[in-house]
Amino acid sequence: MEVKLLLAYNIKPNREDEYYRYVLGEFLPNLQSVGLHMVEGWHTAYGDYPIRLLVFRAEDERIMRTALKSKEWKAAKEKLSKLVRDYEEKVA
Question: Which residues share a beta bridge with 18?
């Protein structure tokens, strides 16, 4: 059964260019390599909510667990954390 990973966060001020380069050039390809595929991306334009919500899917729970334990995920998340704040993640 398909499983989703939801990431919500705000991009740190003055880090937008670096954030976009990283997410498009490294983050998304690294997550795809461990079996997580982005299926949705949302931008909040108004209100007191995280500015960014990304949704990834995995084919099943085993793939999700393996991906979230991988060194690729840990490295990708660590680098992302330097560019964002108010980070939240949820597996659904």
Answer: none
- Residues 56 and 24: their CA atoms lie apart, in Å, by 14
What own/partner pairs with CB < 8 Å and gap ≥ 24 does 35-38 have?
35/59, 35/63, 35/64, 35/66, 35/67, 36/5, 36/64, 36/67, 36/73
Distance between CA 37 and CA 30 in Å, rounded?
10
| Helix (H), strand (E) at residue 4 | strand 3-11
Contact 11, 84 (CB under 8 A): yes
Report the percentage of the chain scoring pLDDT > 70: 100
Q: Residue 8 forms beta bridges with which residues?
A: 53, 88
pTM assigned to the model: 0.94
pLDDT digits (tens, 9 = 90+) for 1-14: 999 999 999 999 99
